[in-house]
Design goal:
single chain; 435 residues; alpha/beta; 40% helix; elongated
Length: 435
């Protein structure tokens, strides 16, 4: 079975089904189509599928020019029907893995996808999970579902985990240039998955088992989360000491070894860094282990929006203005610069906290003209001199490159900058407060 699959992968005739057509799945589809494979794209969102069938895309920070041609030639077939996966040689799961309301792993999307795949699983088929999750998911959750019908892993079918490493908005790295870590349930599973990803990735990194690949992804994001928490804590200390944390970090970064710069902000956003640590801390409890260091960093990062609002209150108070009734213009609601992604954006927490304290909040974001998110609905306003002048405080939450920092400071009475976007502005420095 393995040799037959490897032969089809090698000559480009292996068909691929990608489950989940978001920031992870859609770029993967693009690369497999470009390498000559026929790809079935599966998603439960009918609106997404309809848009793709019309030859259009919906991820603004990614090039969607390829969609129309791929759909027209039949190289890419978007669908909401999972039955089509029965004919695929490889099925790759790229669905969300959020947290429950109790901050515990929610694998409902993964389980749903695995259930549908199990219904049509056939001999010689490869299944790969890419969704970020805790170590053990592939072997403890997915494997029993796929073997329930009697097929044997490593002989009749192949199962592996390969963590996604997408970075929305990053123009330097893509699926093809980022090394792909692959851990199969058996050596044959690893070999099959590595062969498939070698079709679209410049470098494939095999590891001994799925758990290594699963924890690898968590480590990557926990590393960032912990270091961001460190500089966020130093930021709060520097504010008390009257020091510029950004200058401190830039000075430390001149050391050519033993230091890697991380930067503070109003909190953590995106689907990975704010969520992934909780997957590991939850799993660690199964082994009677408390990940105190990781949990502490999560607490620090989670509290940052509250700290920023306190800085806004203090800055307004220094100018004889209360936050209640003040007009605050928030710049940027996306979680990072130059994307439209609102997932876990700290800007949304800032909005809620400011409103709860009686502020009149407006926002401007060139990438998000309007949004509806978890019961909050707003439309943005143009970033004009008049809007800036009419605001008691301009709060920079996301440093989009489209923003003109000098223009903002020139026209605003008070700018609270959480991203050091105003670093190079020389005029009216007395109007700028860092938070």
């Amino acid at each position: 079975m393995k040799d037959q699959l490897l032969a089809k992968v090698a000559d480009g005739t292996a068909s691929v089904a990608v489950v989940g057509l978001g920031y992870v799945g859609l770029p993967l589809v693009q690369h497999f189509v470009a390498s000559g494979h026929k790809v079935l794209g599966l998603d439960v969102d009918a609106a997404r599928v309809a848009t793709l069938k019309e030859g259009r895309g919906y991820l603004k920070d990614l090039s969607m020019d390829w969609v129309a041609g791929a759909v027209r030639t039949g190289a890419f077939s978007p669908s909401t029907g999972f039955g089509g996966a029965a004919g695929a040689d490889a099925v790759i799961i790229c669905v969300p893995t959020p947290l429950s309301e109790h901050r515990e792993p929610d694998l409902s999307h993964v389980r749903f996808a695995a259930e549908r795949i199990a219904e049509t699983l056939h001999r010689g088929q490869l299944v790969v999970l890419e969704s970020t999750t805790y170590p053990g998911t592939t072997e403890e959750v997915i494997l029993p579902m796929l073997t329930a019908g009697g097929l044997k892993v490593g002989e009749d079918f192949f199962l592996a985990f390969s963590p996604e490493r997408e970075d929305p908005g990053n123009k330097t790295f893509s699926v093809g240039s980022i090394p792909k870590v692959v851990g199969g349930v058996t050596p044959a599973c690893t070999e099959a998955a590595c062969a498939l990803y070698a079709r679209v990735c410049a470098r494939v990194v095999p590891v001994s088992r799925p758990g290594v690949a699963e924890l690898c992804k968590l480590l990557e994001n926990i590393f960032r989360g912990v270091n961001i928490a460190l500089v966020n804590e130093l930021k709060m200390l520097c504010d008390r000491m009257g020091l510029d944390v950004w200058e401190v970090i830039d000075a430390a970064a001149t050391k050519p070894f033993g230091f890697m710069p991380f930067y503070p902000g109003p909190g953590l956003g995106g689907h990975c860094i704010p969520i992934d640590p909780f997957y590991l801390t939850w799993k660690a409890r199964e082994y009677g282990f408390t990940t105190r260091f990781i949990e502490l960093s999560g607490e620090i990062n989670t509290r940052m929006p509250e700290y920023v609002v306190t800085r806004v209150m203090d800055a307004l108070n220094d100018r004889g203005r209360a936050l209640r009734g003040a007009r605050v213009l928030l710049l940027g609601v996306a979680y990072k610069a130059d994307v439209e992604d609102l997932r876990e954006s700290p800007a949304l927490d800032l909005m809620r906290l400011l409103r709860d304290k009686g502020a009149e909040v407006r926002y401007s974001d060139p990438h998000v003209p309007r949004f509806e998110h978890h019961g909050m609905s707003m439309e943005g306003v143009p970033l004009s001199a008049e809007e800036l002048a009419a605001s008691d405080c301009v709060l920079i939450a996301t440093a989009h490159t489209a923003y003109d920092a000098a223009f903002i400071v020139e026209n605003a009475a008070l700018v609270v900058d959480t991203r050091n976007m105003t670093k190079h502005v020389t005029a009216h420095r007395d109007r700028i407060v860092h938070a």
